[in-house]
Amino acid sequence: MPTLLLLGAGSDMAIAIARKFAAEKYNIQLAARNAAAISPLQQDLQVRYGITATTHAFDALASDSHAAFFDALSVKPDLTICVFGYLGDQEQAQNSWQEAHTIIHTNYTGAVSILNVVANHYAAQQKGSIVGISSVAGERGRQSNYIYGSAKAGFTAYLSGLRNRLFRSGVHVMSVQPGFVNTRMTQHLTLPPLLTAQPEAVATAVYKGVQRKKNVLYVKWHWKYIMLIIKLIPEGIFKKLKL
Amino acid sequence: MQKRLANWGNYPAIASEESAFTQEDQLRNFVGSHHRIIARGNGRCYGDASLSAQSISMLKYDKVLAFDTTNGILEVQAGVTLDQLLDIIVPQGWFLPVTPGTKYITIGGAVASDVHGKNHHVDGAFSRHIIEMDVITGEDNTLCCSQTEHADLFWATCGGMGLTGIITRVKFRLKKIATAYIRQTQLKARNLEEVIRLFDEYKHYTYSMAWIDCLQQGDTFGRSILIVGEHATPEELSPRQQQAPLTLPAKRKLVVPFNLPSFVLNTFTVKAFNWLYYHKNYKREMHKVIPYEPFFYPLDAILHWNRGYGKAGFVQYQFVLPLEKKDGLVAILQKISEKGWGSFLAVLKVFGNQDDLISFPMEGYTLALDFPVRKGLLPFLDELDEIVLQYGGRLYLSKDARMKQEVFWKSYPNAQRFADIVQQYNADSKFASIQSERLLLTK
Ligand SMILES: Cc1cc2nc3c(=O)[nH]c(=O)nc-3n(C[C@H](O)[C@H](O)[C@H](O)COP(=O)(O)OP(=O)(O)OC[C@H]3O[C@@H](n4cnc5c(N)ncnc54)[C@H](O)[C@@H]3O)c2cc1C
C-alpha cells in the first residue's frame, strides 16, 4: 500500500484529500501543528477505509525542525501533499509586520523548507511525487490580497523550478491552482457558485492529477481562462481596477 | 455569510449566518462567544426547529471515531449522516437500531428529535440505544451524559430539539443483521377499521407502517396498504442475492431539479397518485424479499422530492393519539377528506410505550400528512390541533412549523420539567431556534 504524507491536515481541503486517497487504499500520515486535534480524522480514516493512518506534530513555521520531522517518519511517504496555507488579513498585514510575516512564512518559506527536505529524499531514491496546493491568487497581485498572493506566487515559482530540477530523477511535481473553494477559510465570503469548487472536487482532481502525472492543475477549468484574461490586462489599466 | 435557510418543508425560510467547524476547540470557542445559536444537521426536520439567525452546521463534524465490530458499538461525531454510516456498517453485518424514513439525517438530528422508525413498538426510539454522548452546554463545557451520568441532561437532550446545547459525540448500539435484505409483506386494507385490525394482527412484526389514501369517503374511508417486514435470513434470499448477502446492487437516483409549479399538486393529482398506489397492489397480500433501501427509504430514491410542492413549501402535520382514541383518528381524517386537502403521503403507524421526558412517541396511533402552504392552511391546522388536544394527543416538534404555544404546553405532559432542565443548562438562551421562541422554551 502506498503512503501519503499530508502536510497541514486540519483544513477542510486536507480532510477531503485524506479521505479520497484513503478510499483509494493509501495509508495516510497526517501532519498538523496540533496533532491531538486531528486524531478524530485519523480514527475516521481507519474505520471508514480500513487503512493505517498516523498523526504527526508539524509546524510549518518551525523550519529548524523540518529535517528532524521527516527523519522521524518510520515509513517514508511515496507521495507528499503540501496543503497548509494561511490567508491572513490583508489590511492587518499592511500595517503590522507580524501578520505579513506569518502569511509569507506559512505560504512560502515554510513550504520551501519542508519540501526541500522531501525533494532531496525523492531525488536520491529517484522516485516519489510532490503536490503543492498553491492558489490562483499568486498569478497576479491584487490590492485585496497581495501579501498572500505574492507568497503563493513565490510558491508556484518554486514548484515549477522543482519540477524542472526533478524531472530527470523521475520525480513528479504537480502544482494545484484552486480558485474559490468552499471551506472554513472562505465561509464568511460570498462566492460565485459557478466558480466555487467543493473540497471533495479538489480532492478528486488532485487524485486524478497524481495518477496522470499532471504538471499544473486548475481545479475548475474556467479558472485557467479567467486567469489568462486577468494576466493579459495591461498594467496601466489593471492598477486602476478595484480587485 | 448570510444565506437563505429553510428546512425540508421549505417553510418557513429565514436569513441566517451559518458557520461550520471540524475541530472541537474551534466549535467551543464559537459557542463561547455567541448567543442565540442553534445546531443544524442536514435540515431534514420539516419546520423551524433548526432555524435561527445564527446557526451552526454540523455537517463537517462528521468523523467516525470507533466501530467495535464484535459487539456492534459505534462512536461518531454528531454531524455524520445515516447514509454514510450505513455504507460502513451494513457490509459488516450491522444495522441502525432505529431509523427514520430518510437516511439523509445526522446522528445529532436523530438524537435531538429522538427519532422513531417503523419498529417503535418493538425497539423504542433512538435514545433507547445510546450508551453515552457529549454535549457542549450553555456554560460552555462539554459534558458526557448517559442514563446514569448527568441523566437530566441526557433525557432533555433526547428529543430536546437542540435546546440543551450542541451534541458533539454519540456512542450507540447497533443491531446485528445477516443480510442487507428485508422480507416484506404488503396487505391491502379496504378501510380504516380493517387496517387497524391488521396492525394488531401483525404487531409481532419488527417493522410496520401503512400508507393511507385520505381522500376516500363512505365504505372505503381510510383504505390503505399495510407494509410489514423483517430482516431476511440468508436462506430467504435468491441464489443471486446469496452470493453477497450484505451488499446491495448499485442504483442511480432521480433528482427533482427545481421547484414544480404548485398547480401540479392539486386534489386531482393526489387522487390519481393514491389510486395508482393502491391498485399497484393487485393482490390482497403480497410477499417479497427486497433490499433494505426501498423498504426503509422509499422517498430517498427521488432526491429533493420536497421541491414538488413548489416555492411556497409545505407543512407536515404529524400527530399521535392514545391507543384507545381511534375515533380521534376518524374525526381528523373526516375533516381532511371533507376539505378535500388530501396529501400524497399519509403514513400511519402504531407506537409502543412512551420513551422519555420530551420525545414525541406515546403508545397509540401516529399519522403524518403533507399540506402545501396555501391560503387558509394555518387556521385549518389550528382546527385539527383542537381535535388532537381533545383526544389527548400531541404533535411532533420535528415536523412542526406553526403550532401555537398553548398547544405545546397542554399536550406535552413533561413540558415544564423539560423547560426547567433547559433553563439549567442553557440559562442565557445561548441556544435558541425560532421554534423555541415561538413555544416559549427560550426567552
Ligand atoms: C422524508 C423524511 C422522512 C422522515 N421520516 C421520519 C420518521 O420516520 N421518523 C422520525 O422520527 N423522523 C422522520 N423525519 C424527520 C427527521 O428524522 C428529523 O427531523 C431529524 O431530526 C432530522 O435530522 P437533521 O440531521 O436533518 O437535523 P435538522 O433537521 O437540521 O435539525 C433537527 C433538530 O435537531 C437539532 N440538532 C441537529 N444536530 C444537532 C446537534 N449536533 N446537537 C444538538 N442539536 C442538534 C436541531 O437543532 C433541530 O432541533 C423524516 C424527515 C424526512 C425529510
Automatic annotation (TrEMBL), chain A:
The keyword Ribosomal protein does not apply. The keyword Oxidoreductase applies. It comes from the Bacteria. Keywords: Oxidoreductase. Belongs to the short-chain dehydrogenases/reductases (SDR) family. PANTHER family: 5-KETO-D-GLUCONATE 5-REDUCTASE (PTHR43669), DECAPRENYLPHOSPHORYL-2-KETO-BETA-D-ERYTHRO-PENTOSE REDUCTASE (PTHR43669:SF6). NCBIfam families: PRK07102.1. This is SDR family oxidoreductase. The lineage of its organism: Bacteria, Pseudomonadati, Bacteroidota, Chitinophagia, Chitinophagales.
From TrEMBL, chain B:
Coiled coil: none annotated. Pfam families: FAD_binding_4. InterPro entries: FAD-bd_PCMH (IPR016166), FAD-bd_PCMH-like_sf (IPR036318), FAD-bd_PCMH_sub2 (IPR016169), FAD_lactone_oxidase-like (IPR010031), Oxid_FAD_bind_N (IPR006094). It comes from the Bacteria. Residues 11-177 form the FAD-binding PCMH-type domain. This is FAD-binding oxidoreductase. The lineage of its organism: Bacteria, Pseudomonadati, Bacteroidota, Chitinophagia, Chitinophagales. SUPFAM superfamilies: FAD-binding/transporter-associated domain-like. It comes from Chitinophaga nivalis.
